[in-house]
Amino acid sequence: MLNLLIVLVVILAVVALASVVRVFELGADLRGHDPSAVTESDNRTQSTILVFAGICYMAYVFYQIFWGPEVLPVAASVHGVKTDFLLNLTWAIILPVFFITHILLIYFGYKYFHRSDRKSDFFAHSTKLEAVWTIVPTIVLSSLIVYGLSTWQEITGPTPEETMVIELYSKQFDWTARYAGDDNRLGPSGYRLIEGGNTLGVDLTDAASNDDKVVRGEFHLPVGKPVLFKFHSRDVIHSAYMPHFRTQMNCVPGMTTQFHFVPTMTTAEMRVETGNPEFDYLLLCNKICGAAHNNMQMNIIVESEADFNAWLAGQKTLAEQLSKPVESEIKPQQAEVLEASTETPNGI
Amino acid sequence: MADHTEHVHHAHHGKPDFWTHYVFSQDHKMISKQFLVTAMIMGVVGMMMSVFFRLQLGWPGQSFAILETFLGKWAPDGVLDPNMYLALVTIHGTIMVFMVLTGGLSGTFANLLIPLQIGARDMASGFLNMLSFWFFLGSSVIMLASLFVETGPASGGWTIYPPLSALPQAIPGSGLGMTLWLVSMTLFIVSSLLGGINYIVTIINLRTKGMSMDRMPLTTWALFITAILGLLSFPVLLSAALLLVFDRSFGTSFYLSDIFISGQALEHTGGSPILFQHLFWFLGHPEVYIVLLPALGITSEVVSTMSRKPIFGYKAMVGSMLAIAFLSMIVWGHHMFVTGMNPFLGSVFTFTTLLVAIPSAVKVFNYLTTLWKGNIVYSPAMLFAIGLVSTFITGGLTGIILGDSALDINIHDTYFVVGHFHIVMGASAIFGMFSGVYHWFPKMYGRMMNKNLGYAHFWITITSMYGVFFPMHFLGLAGIPRRYYDNTAFPIFDGLQDINEMISLFAILGACAQAIFFFNFIYSIYRGPRASQNPWHSNALEWTTPVNPGHGNWPGAIPTVYRWAYDYSRPDKDVDFIPQNVPPTADEKEIH
Amino acid sequence: MHTNEELKAKNVRAQKMLVWLGVGSIAMFFGAFTSAYMVLQADHFWVLHDLPTMFGVSTIVIAFSSLSMWMATRCIKQGNTAGLKRWLSVTLLLGLAFTATQYKGWEELNEGGKFVVGHINDLTGQYGKDYLILMKGQPMLFHDGHYFRPDDIGYEKPMDDRINGTFNVSSSFLFILSGLHIAHLAGGLIYLIVLLFNAKRGRYSATAHLGVDLGAIYWHFLDILWIYLFLFLTFIR
Lengths: 348, 592, 237
Known about the structure:
The complex is a heterotrimer. Chain A is 42% helix and 16% strand. By secondary structure, chain A is an alpha+beta fold. Chain C has helices at residues 4-41, 53-77, 81-111, 160-163, 169-200, 210-235, and strands at 45-49, 131-135, 138-139, 141-143, 146-148. The longest helix of chain C has 38 residues, at 4-41.
């Protein structure tokens, strides 16, 4: 009934609007005007609105510039500080361009609205002007490209010696992190070994595997130490996104990707920085992966190296975790084939 | 190829009956209208979808009766289902990018304008042209049909990355819904290829006497370059889709490898999901310009005509379009900076991507210089053209941030990207399309659209457009990923919910504004004031035909062309404009 | 003003260009597949196999069909409709023969354990002679019935576990590339039949034979496309 009423109201509104438009057009006809012709007063009105709207738009953008940097706190990684600087530099170049071109657009739009006593300036070509606005952007962009690429090379450069390796495993819809145990070596893993509690498919026959530590829910990082993440996915593409560290890398089934960075602020320091005692670093999924894509997260705790070592020592080893029987809904698989993580091609 | 095209077209056919006139028409003007109306219907569907998911994003988890009315079981108690949310996002993207802005924009204006502006009786092959529309319609119908599939339509994002799009176990939409999506896209690709081939051949071969390439209006140039881009890139998407079909239906393993899902390890090994991304974006990036270039072409024509001033730097405009088209073929990797691609390759793609800014800057400055010392007539088409210049600047500039691989690491796939491409390709292209519709409506229907409704439409549209998309940059910088059903799982995003609510309100406003356009469009077809032959005092050849041109366009001989299309306000003449078919006087020099 | 002849010439040029551009888009279509082939080749395991000998025969057959198509167009240019019909029939027969040799080639592939959807361990024959497996671009070692990494000279760690069950993607490509070519050839065959019917009804003359010319462009393209695929699969493997 309500729907019917809504439909009725809409139809009536359309009919009413049509009548109003018709009356206006007939009125114009009677006065001898062509109702569709753009008049001098239209030009004046529209160009005035253009100025008004343009000023509003630029004010709106200006307002958001001050609002913008507040949204993510200061970068908590070494390379993040560099990319933030690059970002600000880029803003410093493009915002003036934005304002200048818009002011010109609006100013010309207002100043040169049509008057019948004027004639346009026939100005069809100027090699000099065109050269200027080809060459100037080229120079500006070249410097941005050079600076940007040097930053990119630093970020993606070779992993420093003595880097701790952490493997991040993704699946619909959660994350698992794996640390090497006391032997400092991660055992190989493969999707065909996934069975029961061994959700990562770690090769338990390999000597390096037993003391590995597997953690869920949250994982810890030592501050000031380089960490190399190796990313895995066992079903669809996920993307490991850690916005506070300005870090992101896709997790692709069938290959291992990697990213290394140095966290620079502990969680405690960041809580002070943001003034939010609840603050936690986050790992999010940033590649559409299914119904619960929006809730695929893991907390990250950054702490001093001593605290980190204590935390890691307190975690159970994989052998300990798997020794007690695990209730699992997952059907056991034939675990005869091995996919060694070190042998998967296509790392970064 | 067939022989029935061998006869030469005659200007006067017998009186056509209803079927050959309105349905199986081979007249380019009718096909153009068919494209436009189909695209408008698809546009409404796409827009409604965006309103639906904006309701969820603005007020997460809240119940809306309208959702239940339209989506039924996918919105139990008026709350959107997460799978349906992803499906809406996917189909919204597909419909808008392909059906509205590729099929609708190129299909409408290439068909309408190419023969009229170059002085041809019709397209090189009216039959292929008709087929092109029917494939397009078929593809649109199948896309709509996929909405009613039991397991839901395709929901892996419009980029349909496998394995998500290949495995029904991963998301229900990857079942029959995805199959229909692929069928629809295959038809769509065939439609674009048939159309594109026709446009290119028509422009190269059927120009009237005197219409050399350097006298062609920029609209035709833009449509020409667009068609070439489509011809080079759409077949690649077809290949990508075909390999996906093989993986999905025949058990091959091109894109799939090492997958454990639903409690079992899949057989598939040996493929690479990244391969799909390479193939997809080899189309996907040129696609951006397939969408954008016609809009830029339309704007060039409108800005010049309505400023009563020649377009500034005609050759630079053509050159920059060619440069953009060329560069667009070698930048696809910038969509894949964080897929673990070789860092050196990333550097190359950053380099080529940022180069696109140079021809784009040339275009913007040329538009500005065209306005400078002009005599601007504010028709609704002109307002939309100015709007396009603004969105092209705004969206283009943020592209410099996204194209930089080092910066892309942090904002890749966040709302920053959503804001960027909606402004630079969504809004720009749709503004170009609106501009074209207001400008050439008299040519299509022989009547004028109501200007005051046009003004209202423009101002509300641009306000809501910036209201929706500009704040998204900041959501992105805050780290909100795109395609999230809601952000409530993350307390750090709570403070941004106000912005999301504002965006949703603007989205609803923007959708309502389109009702004004639809009313104006339909009302004007039947009741609009009758148009004069050349209502905008334009130089281009399409305005030399009768108000309602028949099949064959010019009742007598095709006019001969003596000058470029932009002889407005020549200082050596008293008249305001000199159409292209006016012969030069003895002392006159051709300037451009 | 345009005379009728000029318009006609314009139209002929336009129709030919339509076919050329159509052919160009098909070329892009196959280009994408061969690029994908090369991308996957550098990834995971890749089986190198020699093309079936029958594919060599089909290359010769399709080259001859191109020649006979050329003869057909030459005949009609001289107004020789009988010659046109004869050579079109020859082309049609050679086209069918090509299809038959392709089918034989697929059988040959199947005998070697290569399927549209198959595994590396389905392969039969002798390693190194009938097939070769690449791992990240390097040939794997084979010793005593086991596979080893390319750098595992001492034959220490067999890789059979990983090889077994891995899909043979390169043979999928062989079938898909040749299959899609046949699909395009089928269109050509149908068009040849149409041409033959029209020729029987006397539709073509020395001055009006656009249909034949268009068919010839497409047919020669199919020939060149196959030769490209043949060379690509022989040398890039």
